[in-house]
Amino acid sequence: MTDSKSSNNKLQGKVAIVTGGASGMGEATAREFAVHSTRAIVIADIQDEKGQNVAVSIGSNVCTYVHCDVSDEEQVKNLVDSTVKSYGRLDIIFSNAGIGRATHACDQSVLDVDLVAYDKLMAVNARGMAA
Prior knowledge:
The protein is an alpha/beta fold. The protein has a single domain (4-97), classed as Rossmann fold. The protein is 45% helix and 15% strand. The chain has helices at residues 4-8, 24-35, 48-58, 73-87, 115-130; strands spanning 15-19, 40-45, 63-67, 92-94. A 4-stranded parallel beta sheet has the order 3-2-1-4, sandwiched between helices.
């Protein structure tokens, strides 16, 4: 059994990316990383205003915001590359970005499935996590 003091230091000095960090669980995770002395937190999201506000509220000495759509592999690659270039390393990727539904039409029947919207949902929630 480890004591709480030693377990609290596991994040100290680490560099982390939090996708979907502008709100919800991603935001809560970014804030928790800051509490536990993470050296740098990069919030990656498509919600620019929210992400920038979260980064500022955590503190610009620890946290930055980068616009990143995880369904676009080039944006993910640029996110990782810029993080490593800025901080010399990357220790943690908290892959949290996701969307709840692909379309606003919740009353679709199985005969009316919008496959373009479904492809976007899968690109963000499944493929984006792997990217």
